[in-house]
């Protein structure tokens, strides 16, 4: 019973000793966080701060206490000079690479400073500030739109937005349109604050006057100085049957010799239609008041062109239709 009591007593002493050691270790872990803010793309070797001074450490003991940085996230972008206690850049930091998500405007590197003999642990938080190092870029360099000439004024068309990896004021802020007075744009704000433009038709289009409109859409960010990106907008105007065919003249007067052989070519008539495609196909026919004995014609093979043959010198009427 005495030995059992002695063993239990020793076990209790070990338990107390373990608790004391654990308490001592926890006590040497700093609960506060030392915060630094640095711009991205700092040159390698650039000094961020004197870590030893900020943490109240003796520079002379950093080597023997094996001071080191433990990277909690990402690769090793920073290190400590154990001779001077300075925190410095090991590799250039690209904010858009380490924090690709734009859901948060903040980007941090979290590190632990560890020393031995005795063990001390300090928490570091390095905020990476965004620089305007990226220009807006459209997903497509050329945007194609087909718009009917029958489309009403005020009609809107969605355009591809530009993307800028930068955040905050360095991201896309506005758009500009150039190349035509027939169109305008209106800036809209989408999810997560993304800006995009809608193309607005200022007046109805006339394909016969201009079949293609070439526009330039420019995206502008809010950085200083600003950066821009451009995309071409090619608007093809689709035809509607809004033009009637017409002859070269409203009236033709033809003189025929009385002894001209039947079937002789008297005149070649030409009708044209400003529309395109099937809307410009022309078929000739005669007025109901024109006698079949008066004229005869032959298709020349060219659209809108007809060869007229008449047996006698007399007036006739010819009408065109499509």
Automatic annotation (TrEMBL):
This is Cadherin domain-containing protein. It comes from the Eukaryota. One of its GO terms (biological process) is anatomical structure morphogenesis. The lineage of its organism: Eukaryota, Metazoa, Chordata, Craniata, Vertebrata. GO terms for cellular component: plasma membrane. Keywords: Calcium, Cell adhesion, Glycoprotein, Membrane, Repeat, Signal, Transmembrane, Transmembrane helix. Pfam families: Cadherin, Cadherin_2. Residues 1-31 form the signal peptide. Coiled coil: none annotated. It comes from Scophthalmus maximus. Residues 30-138, 139-247 form the Cadherin domain. GO terms for molecular function: calcium ion binding. The keyword tRNA processing does not apply. CDD domains: Cadherin_repeat. It is found in: Membrane. InterPro entries: Cadherin-like_dom (IPR002126), Cadherin-like_sf (IPR015919), Cadherin_CS (IPR020894), Cadherin_N (IPR013164), Protocadherin/Cadherin-CA (IPR050174). PANTHER family: CADHERIN-87A (PTHR24028), PROTOCADHERIN ALPHA-C2-LIKE-RELATED (PTHR24028:SF288). It is a single-pass membrane protein. SMART domains: CA.
């Amino acid at each position: 019973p005495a030995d059992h009591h002695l063993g239990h007593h020793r076990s209790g002493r070990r338990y107390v000793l373990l608790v004391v050691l654990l308490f001592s270790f926890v006590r040497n872990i700093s609960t506060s966080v030392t915060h630094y803010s640095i711009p991205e793309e700092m040159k390698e070797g650039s000094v961020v701060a004197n870590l030893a001074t900020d943490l109240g450490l003796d520079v002379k003991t950093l080597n023997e206490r094996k001071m080191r940085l433990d990277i909690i996230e990402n690769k090793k972008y920073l290190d400590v000079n154990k001779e001077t206690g300075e925190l410095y850049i090991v590799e250039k930091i690209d904010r858009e690479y380490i924090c690709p998500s734009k859901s948060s405007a903040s980007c941090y590197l979290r590190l632990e400073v560890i020393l031995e003999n005795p063990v001390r642990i300090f928490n570091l938080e390095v905020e990476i500030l965004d620089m305007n190092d990226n220009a807006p870029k459209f997903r497509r360099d050329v945007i194609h739109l087909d718009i009917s000439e029958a489309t009403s004024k005020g009609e809107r068309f969605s355009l591809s937005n530009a993307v800028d990896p930068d955040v905050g004021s360095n991201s896309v802020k506005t758009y500009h349109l150039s190349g035509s007075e027939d169109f305008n744009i209106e800036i809209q704000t989408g999810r997560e604050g993304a800006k995009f433009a809608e193309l607005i038709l200022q007046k109805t289009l006339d394909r016969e006057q201009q079949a293609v409109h070439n526009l330039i859409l420019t995206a502008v960010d809010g950085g200083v100085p600003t950066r821009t990106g451009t995309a071409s907008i090619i608007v093809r105007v689709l035809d509607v049957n809004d033009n009637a065919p017409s002859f070269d003249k409203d009236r033709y007067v033809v003189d025929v010799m009385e002894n001209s052989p039947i079937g002789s070519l008297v005149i070649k008539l030409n009708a044209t239609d400003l529309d395109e495609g099937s809307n410009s196909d022309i078929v000739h026919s005669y007025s109901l008041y024109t006698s079949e004995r008066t004229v005869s014609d032959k298709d020349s093979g060219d659209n809108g062109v007809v060869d007229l043959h008449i047996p006698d010198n007399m007036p006739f009427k010819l009408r065109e239709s499509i």
